[in-house]
């Protein structure tokens, strides 16, 4: 959780820990969204493997305090990103992403440049002899990469996410380090900020020439991610907060976000990686 702690500390410094409240908070089936009193909004992957969660007082004590989240101090909810309970982590990361959007609107992107409409795959600058490791089965990326790179490994806990003719690319999560350490380009789902394990993945991918953190959960704030080896933060910028909140609360996945957001990438300037 050190990366989460450093992310929060960086935002506290940039925003001088000013009092900001969370105006609205939605926990949807696929994503969680937090809107600040400033209007800045962030989203995060909602974990759905909650086998140990049942509707009883014991599990309720570990869950976010439903009915009392809107109006809370943003820094309080941001601390949930390091919680043990999965749903709390989703709330915390969504709030940190909203705070990241606010900080970036004031301070820009230290060490990086904002590239609107640039998706993760284009930002990765992949060439034919690259060995690509992808953590998370990004279906559109698979279509573009298969047959066009030297090697392709797709790490995902759900083998069924791949088509039958893509099964040869699949690797189980326990082989993530093996795939990432062999890759020249690593594309990692930012949902790992909620599900855990991102720091180990970045360490395994330290020899890759290009490391991309991708998906709607990806922060648009460069620290501490650039200093930990990330080259591209490929996420979204929410343009219509009310619309985004409705999409999330109605069970919308990332495929629906285009109605409320735009794809953007923050690309690290050469020479600014410290790891």
Detailed description of the structure:
- With 275 residues, this protein is an alpha/beta fold.
- It folds into 2 domains: 2-107, Enolase-like, domain 1, CATH 3.30.390; 112-238 and 259-268, 3-Layer(aba) Sandwich (Rossmann fold), CATH 3.40.50.11590.
- It has helices at 2-14, 57-62, 74-78, 86-107, 120-123, 139-145, 176-181, 192-195, 198-204, 241-249; strands at 22-27, 31-36, 41-45, 112-116, 131-135, 151-155, 170-171, 185-189, 210-214, 232-238, 261-268.
- The strands form 2 sheets. Strands 4-11-10-9-8-5-6-7 form an 8-stranded mixed sheet.
- Helix 1 (2-14) packs parallel to helix 4 (86-107).
- The mean pLDDT is 92.
What is the overall shape? globular
Strand content: 15-25%
Low-confidence stretches: none
Give the total of domains. Answer: 2
Could you tell me the radius of gyration in angstroms? 18 Å
Question: What is the name of the CATH class of the largest domain?
Answer: Alpha Beta
CATH level-3 fold name of the largest domain: Rossmann fold
Percentage of residues assigned to helices: 25-40%
Tell me the distance between the termini. 17 Å
Short recap of the structure:
The chain has helices at 2-14, 57-62, 74-78, 86-107, 120-123, 139-145, 176-181, 192-195, 198-204, 241-249; strands at 22-27, 31-36, 41-45, 112-116, 131-135, 151-155, 170-171, 185-189, 210-214, 232-238, 261-268. It is an alpha/beta fold. An eight-stranded mixed β-sheet has the order 4-11-10-9-8-5-6-7. A three-stranded antiparallel β-sheet has the order 1-2-3.
